[in-house]
Structure formats: structure tokens, C-alpha cells
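Trying the structure run again after the queue cleared.
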Amino acid sequence: MSDPSAPFLDDLPPLDGPAPIGARDAPPGRRNARAILAALRELVTDAANLESGPATLLEIGSGPGLHAAAFADPLAPARWLPTDHATDNHASILAWTDAIPVGRARPLPPRVLDASAPDTWPLDETESVRVIFSANVIHIAPWSVALGLFDGAGRVLPKGGLLLLYGPFRRHGAFTGDGDAAFQEWLLSLDSRYGVRDLDGEVIPAAAAHGLVFDHTRSMPANNLMVVFRKA
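Done. C-alpha cells:
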């Protein structure tokens, strides 16, 4: 069932109504949807023009599938490919997809993808992945997931392709918001391998090792960032 406190987005179906039967809701996913989509519109258009033909946007860690369902049509003709390591999320992704109004573009069927094992990513060159998007993943996963994500992105993306990371980050070792220290303690209580990653000391160097050059950040709601990397 939908959280009654979650705002409906009357201009962004299917997030303009309650969660469909069989789907899990995520109020934070609703709240950040407009801001993320606004950033993606510009960034995906830029990357999609790298070559002719429709681009594929690979989402790593789709969770319940709200963003896949809401963004597939506004970003068409780019194709949105949702993936998640947890197969129990796939039913929710499909339920949100089924709620998309008739006539609007839909995401591709979800695939199982383990970001920490890039050798096993279910992709091939014909799919023309030019953008990889991952929201709220690398802080609530072991660091090996981030390293695998950078490795896989470095292999899959063409020159000029984009890796986009959304979520909380530390800057030069310091938290950027009053609540981030408490959030860090909560993450570590879940698993000592989790944590808000340091963008400058950890993330940028690790990405650079796989040919992903830090481009810029964009400030997002709730003290989050959209971090943009470009394949060299």
C-alpha cells in the first residue's frame, strides 16, 4: 500500500497515484523524482547524441522500480533498463511498469545484475549503453559494489558516456549536512561495510582507475548530490 504521507506527482505518472497492487512504495523515491528527472533530461540528451540510434540508460539498483516507471517515457527515445541484484524487487518493478498509462514508453524488463561482479553483467554491445545511473546504492552496500560498478562502467560505456551517481557523499572527509553523521552511524549499525562515501578521497580516485573522469556535481534535495563522471 502507498504511504499516505507520500506526495503524489500529478505531472509524473504513474507516481501520480498510489502504489499499484504488487508494488512497493518508496516515499523518498517520490520526493526526489522531479529533481532527478530534471537533471537526467539534460544529461541523458547530451550522452544520447554520442552516436546515431536509440541509447540505453542502464539503472543499477532499481529497488522497487518507481524511477524506472516514471522516467522511461520522459526520457524516450532513450531506453531505460532497470536492474537489481535482489530478485524480489523485480515483481515490484514490473507492477510499477504495468501502471504506466497506455501509449507511454515503458522501461525494458528488469534484469538481475550484481554490480560487484562486472564480468557477469547481462549486457552486450548491441544495446548501446551510453548512460549508467545508480541512486542510493554505494553507501548502503560494501565498497566492493562501488568498485565493481566503476569497473563495469569503464568497460560498458563508450567514450563520452556518463556514469551518474545520486545520493549522500562526504567532501574531503567531512559530512556536508547536520544529519549525515547520524545517518552514517545508522548505516554502520546495519553493516560495518556500509557508509557515506568520501567523494574526493574515495569515489573520484576509484572511478578514475577505470577511465571515468569526474565532471561535476549537482546539488539535489535532502543534501544529496548528483555526481557526473564521463568516460575518457
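The first helix runs from residue 27 to 31. Worth checking whether this holds up in the mutant runs.
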